[in-house]
Design goal:
The protein has 459 residues and is an all-alpha fold. The protein has 22 helices and two strands. Among the domains are: 218 residues, Rhomboid-like (Rhomboid-like fold); 68 residues, Serine Threonine Protein Phosphatase 5, Tetratricopeptide repeat (Alpha Horseshoe). The protein has a two-stranded antiparallel ribbon with strand order 1-2.
Length: 459
Amino acid sequence: MTNLLMAISILIFILMVLKHVPLFNPTSDQIAAWGGNYGPLTMGGQPWRILTNIFVHIGIVHIIANMWALFVLGRLAESLYGRFSFLVVYLMTGIAGSVASLLWNPMGVSAGASGALFGILAALIATLYVGKLPLPRHVVRPVLGTLVLWAALQLGYGFWKTGIDNAAHIGGLIAGLILGFPLGHHLGPAPAARQSRERIFTYALMALGIFCFFVWRYDSYVVEIERARVLLNENKPDQAIPLLRAAAQRRPKDPYVHTLIAQSLERKNDFPAAETEYKQALQIAPNNGNLWRFLASLYARTQRWEDAANAFSKAGTLSKDNGISWFDAGIAYRQLDRQKEAANAFRQCVTVNPYFGDAWYQLGIALLNLKQNKDAVPALQQAAKLLPNNPEAHLWLGNALLSVGQEEAAKAEFLKAFQLRALQQKAVQEFQRKQQQKQLQQQQRPSQPQPSPAPSSQK
């Protein structure tokens, strides 16, 4: 049974790769499309996802780690419980982990066998602790200690590392302990032991059903959130807002709900109300860099550049957005004519992302405005290198070189800038000529008679 479970997971991963899902870092949409656990879909009519996500993995590193753990733990558990009991424990604890994930973070996409693996690990710990095994305790004790240490290390790593669904781990762990203790007293092929295991699984299935019912009732609001998000993507904020307001009444401490309300209000140009919603979300999640960026963008839209610069800087400190927030902070400081702060923000941006050509370009201009011409030259040289077809980058580099006395190098950059401008102008003229020619051909084409509408039919 261990081999079969591994084969299913590996086969699904191969099919995902063949369908162009990346080996490393697939997107949430791709994982959801292959059966990942996503609250609005799972609770919105696709409950089978609490099972299918156990066999879906997020990248090659994820599946290698989980399949190695399944190979080690599965063989031990299968030899101890038997094929059927091992399969039931694996699936039930995996489902329990999936439902716990929905309870903790219903708006996240999760997948992987980790919940089931923690369930097997916990069941083994409980069984080895209380089980009547034909082995002396001095043989069982080191194995038990190793399993406990393994569980503690994996849980600790899940709390330390971002992007790991530790709720599923804890859910599987608790379910495994609940199953493992009674199973430990009813091992072996005897008919009485088999009947006891069947009763244990029946009661466990009933408890799992009650747990699912509770989570569905508690988190059903996420279905409305997803519906509102789709309406917002269709630019229908008036229809989305009532759904989101109802969700906010049920879960006032959910920052994602307040964020969607704010974005809906922005679509309606109700900026003061949108600002209030963003600030409510930040009161709940003050270290969320994306929320600070959303608020900063609203400030920029309303030309509140001081607030925008501060919020973008906060977002740059908190988020891993490849320096975009620092770049926008620099633009906001430029609007305030605070060139020193702008230069510092652009410098932060290129430190995070040294291949961001526009940031090097803006840094060079800010340094020129500060009369730091020698420092501006290498910044603009990097910009011209990363933006070879941008005439403005070469023009400003020429100005910087000229300011430090490098006249010949400046002339070469000016020449490049003029050549690129000429090529761009020629490309624009050619495009306009083709557009005019296309319009002339359409005007000369004879009009076609329009067909009459088909007769209506009654049902």
